[in-house]
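Supplementary notes for students who missed Thursday's class. We covered one full example, reproduced here. Read the sequence, then the structure, then the short commentary at the end.
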Amino acid sequence: MKNYSVSAAIAATLLLSGCAGGPTPIPDADSAAARLYAEKCGVCHALPHPKRHSAGEWPALIALMERRMSERGLDPLTPEQRQQLLSYLQHNGR
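Structure (token representation):
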């Protein structure tokens, strides 16, 4: 039988317990902006929490994601949708 270090056991426990909790809910999840965020941004990947990026970072990320949407043949954001998403993400960003 192998001897495992206590720190390795603790690390494994913390890793597994972190996975069990699931993602952190997004702010104002029932709002129209949050639903739009989930609808448009959750198509290709898991939704990052808005606090993952600062208010100043979100415009460039939206532009990048719009290019990726175009590459995948997805419907582009309307100017109104872009503004609604950007407002939501900047308001709830870090």
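Commentary. The radius of gyration is 18 Å. Helices lie at 6-20, 32-41, 58-71, 79-92. If anything here is unclear, bring it to office hours.
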